[in-house]
Amino acid sequence: MAVSMRSILMQSVVRRRPVGRRSRAAAACLLFLAGGSALAAEANDAEAGRALFLKGTTAPACAVCHTLADAGAAGTIGPNLDELKPDAGRVAQAVRNGIGVMPAFDALSDADVQALAKYVSEVTGGQ
């Protein structure tokens, strides 16, 4: 059974007595674990975005055409993303709709597009 910090504190208020050490420790552990899982999810998103950039699930991979230092990519067909510094919305729009000679990548899921867009925007500082 999941216990939230709010429910522990509410129990204390209803009972009109202070929250015990065990309850505070349990709440602190829950908060730590929740924060840790969020950090792990962010790391997994970044890894997934990088993997999509380098290999992708469709051809060609982004790295074939674009330069991106974090990925070790030195493509010269598309713009240098380190210089362009696109935000996540701009990357997602280009991936979904295509732009210039870049085709739309319809085969990518929304989650893939979001992970890729977030990765590129974060490593280029385009947020």
TrEMBL record:
The keyword Nucleotide-binding does not apply. One of its GO terms (molecular function) is metal ion binding. It comes from the Bacteria. Residues 44-124 form the Cytochrome c domain. Pfam families: Cytochrome_CBB3 (PF13442). Residues 1-40 form the signal peptide. PROSITE patterns: CYTC. Keywords: Electron transport, Heme, Iron, Metal-binding, Signal, Transport. This is Cytochrome c domain-containing protein. It comes from Achromobacter arsenitoxydans SY8.
